Amino acid sequence: MGGAPNITIHVPGPLRPYCAGAAQLSISARTVRAALEDLRRSQSAFYRNVCDETGTVRRHLNVFVNSDNVRDLDGVDTTLSQGDVVTILPAVSGG
Amino acid sequence: MADRIILTIGTKKGVFVADAAKPRRSFVLRGPFGPGVPVYSTLIDTRGTPLLYASSCNPFFGMKVLRSKDMGKSFTETKSAPAFPKDDGRALANIWGLEVGGGKKDLWCGVEPASLFRSHDGGDSWDLVPGISNHEHARKWQPGNGGLCMHTIIRDGSRVHLGISTGGHYLSEDGGETFKASNRGVGAGFAPDPYPEYGQCVHKIARHDDAPGRLYMQNHGGWADWTGPGGPRPDIGVLRSDDYGHSWRSIAKGLPSDFGFPIVVHPHDADTVYVVPLAPATRSCPGGAPAVWRSENGGESWSRLGRGLPKKQSYFTVLRDAMDIDRLKAPALYFGTTTGQLWIGREGGEQWDCLFDSLPPIHNVKVAVV
Q1: Does B92 touch chain A (CB under 8 A)?
Q2: Which entry of A53, B8, B275, B282 is 20 to 30 Å from A18 by CA?
Q3: CA distances from B199 to B141, B254, B286 (A)
Q4: What is the ipTM of this complex?
Q5: How are beta strands A68-69 and A24-28 bridged, if at all?
Q6: Which residues in chain B have their CB less than 8 angstroms from residue A13's CB?
Q7: Cβ contact, residue pair A15, B61, below 8 Å
Q8: Is B88 in Cβ contact with A53 (below 8 Å)?
Q9: What is the pLDDT along chain B (370 residues), one digit of tens a residue?
Q10: What are the sequence ranges of the domains in chain B?
Q11: Cβ–Cβ contact B246 with A under 8 A
Q12: A85 conformational bin, left if phi > 0, alpha if psi -120 to 50, beta if neither
């Protein structure tokens, strides 16, 4: 069994101050859950903005793998492939 | 030398700071800080060099605590915000109360879901206070329309009073180690039992250092017309305790409504207390004519303070933490509205003027003389 695929996390603008200004992060992970766990260890301030203290992705955030919302896939158990881009975006809102 | 009045104004779109010289003729506004993010609680810590705090309650990215060390010219995040232990199962949904603690850098923080946190380093790290957060009642409290929030924290020596909506009044007499529900005489209109042990929708509690044992409470009133089980329960909205919160009695007689959110005590007279009666059904000014009501005898009678306020067509709400009073010799009241107006009531509310008329909806107003 090979190593975990290399993927890219796209960081939304408001959260870049929490990861030293980075617009994207390169990590290795087999699933979205593993990617979040990697972020918990390596980018804890950024991670706290994405997941609450129970480890759940915050309610008004959407996580995409390439162009697909993980809600339409297997949630945080969605598997990742080499070169995938994981994008974290606030849900649309008004008011 | 204390010579400036400073206001923190928590709004739906961030926190503003306003300040003025002692005559309070004109205030300069700065902000918003934490722009676009709701702020439900602020604190002006005057124990040393003044520090300003604001909760920044981001529905997308979670809760932050902002701190200003330069009198509100800039704010930065503290190193961390309160957070439940991972195995607790609860997640922080809002920050509703910030108060100073006993130590030089101690802070207390009331949150949603109703729990209490404490910091010993000015808000950079936080610990859950288990005596109330893990109280046997905690998982039975129910959220009201505003959420399940711990909004009032009052320290009085070894006593700690907490106001929880919807949980009621809880009292610690051992410095916050343990708490007991203390709601004798505090009514509830949304349950068949009009006087339950706990579960009341307390809106705000206030006290004065010169009146040991006395507390004032704005409870969720407006239940005089209830005809269901338990019968009507008039005048449960405005209450007073004279035994450190062990029991409460109504002081609502004479008010146009016993529904409201804030309750504030005069800084130099423990008998003078202010409320903002609202129509129970709409949570807005009765008859479209806003007024603060004042009692100068501990709630035995009330008088209307409306000079300078609109006489008609005003239907705003003043929320639980959106009224405060400064500590000058002739103190001024301040309240913010859900329509974004900030009003000053000079001479203890005798004359009202609008300081700012187009802010975002206001959740919180605090004032200090620094």
Answers
A1: yes
A2: B8
A3: 6, 27, 27
A4: 0.90
A5: unpaired
A6: none
A7: yes
A8: yes
A9: 568 999 999 999 999 999 999 999 999 999 999 999 999 999 999 999 999 999 999 999 999 999 999 999 999 999 999 999 989 999 999 999 999 999 999 999 999 999 999 999 999 999 999 999 999 999 999 888 888 999 999 999 999 999 999 999 999 999 999 999 999 999 998 888 999 999 999 999 999 999 989 999 999 999 998 888 888 899 999 999 999 999 999 999 999 999 999 999 999 999 999 999 999 999 999 999 999 999 999 999 999 999 999 999 999 999 999 999 999 999 999 999 999 999 999 999 999 999 999 999 999 999 999 9
A10: 1-82+324-370, 132-271
A11: no
A12: beta
Which B-chain residues 61-80 have CB contacts (< 8 A) with chain A? 61-62
Sign of CA dihedral B323, B325, B326, B327: negative
* The token pair that represents B56 in the structure block: 């920044």
CATH code for the domain defined by B132-271? 2.130.10.10
Question: Which of A15, A18, A54, A89 is the best residue to mutate to test the B interface, defined by the most B CB atoms within 10 Å of its own CB?
Answer: A54
The CATH-assigned architecture of domain A6-90 is: Roll (3.10)
B69: left (phi over 0), alpha (psi -120 to 50) or beta: alpha
Distant-in-sequence, close-in-space partners of B302: CB < 8 Å, separation ≥ 6:
B254, B255, B293, B294, B295
B109: closest CA of chain A, how far (Å): 17
In contact, B58 and B37? CB cutoff 8 Å: yes
